[in-house]
Every structure is written in C-alpha cells, then in structure tokens.
C-alpha cells in the first residue's frame, strides 16, 4: 500500500491514496491554516470509523442480516502533552435493518474490533477503545 502527501501552501496538504483518491488536510487558523480540510488526527478517526463500519456491514451481510444502514459516531480523547496520542476512543454504532438479530450485530462489532479492523487494533495499542451499539428497524 502506498500513499502520498503533498504540501499545497500555508498549512494545507493534499493526501493521495494508492487507489487514486485525494483528500485535503488543513490546520486551524491559529497555526497558519485556513480550515479548508480535516486535520490529520481527524483523518485517523475517520479511517477507524470507515474500517470498522466496512467490517460490520460485510460481516452482517455474510450472516444474512438485512442491514440497510450503518453509522459510527466516534468520540476520542487525546493526551495533554506531546505526543498527543489518542488515549480513549469510543465507537457508537447505529445499525439499521430489517429484523436484525442483536447477537449477530454484537458479534460483527466484536469481530471487527478484535480480529479484522487493523485501524482499531493498531490504535488500541495507545488508547482504550470501547464500543457500543443501537439497532433501528428499517421502514
């Protein structure tokens, strides 16, 4: 896997993935940024959420669950001193579907966290990573 980050100007950078996609990252105005994009540490949380949600949806589909939506709300705390690593991360999954089995949703989240989501497993080396979920019936 390869990626590239190129400085644009001020504190703006563009990240280019090996699969050909781009994203703008920028800093806050107090650090010379113009607030044009997400912060790099926010990107880590977005990657964690995407990795986890991808796993959960895939596992539920393979379990023959009729999942129609999956949202992950993430809250994180960072250390006060440098390096300001994440110390706590909580993922709240909102899984919507038709007649979802609670045990299968719980299992999918657990498998993602403990076996499949590389981002979650990696971030758990410095942070306490917790999960919970709610299920919603699709209309």
TrEMBL record:
Pfam families: OsmC. It comes from the Bacteria. NCBIfam families: PRK10738.1. This is OsmC family protein. It comes from Thiothrix nivea (strain ATCC 35100 / DSM 5205 / JP2).
């Amino acid at each position: 896997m390869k990626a590239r980050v190129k400085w644009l100007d001020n504190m703006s950078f563009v990240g280019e993935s090996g699969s050909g996609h781009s994203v703008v990252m920028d800093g806050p105005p107090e650090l010379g940024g113009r607030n044009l994009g997400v912060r790099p540490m926010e990107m880590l949380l977005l990657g964690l959420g995407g990795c986890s949600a991808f796993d959960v949806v895939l596992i539920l589909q393979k379990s023959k669950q009729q999942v129609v939506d999956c949202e992950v709300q993430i809250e994180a705390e960072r250390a006060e001193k440098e390096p300001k690593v994440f110390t706590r991360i909580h993922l709240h999954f909102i899984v919507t579907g038709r007649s979802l089995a609670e045990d299968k949703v719980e299992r999918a989240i657990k498998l993602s966290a403990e076996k499949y989501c590389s981002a979650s497993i990696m971030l758990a080396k410095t942070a306490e990573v917790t999960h919970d979920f709610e299920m919603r019936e699709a209309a």
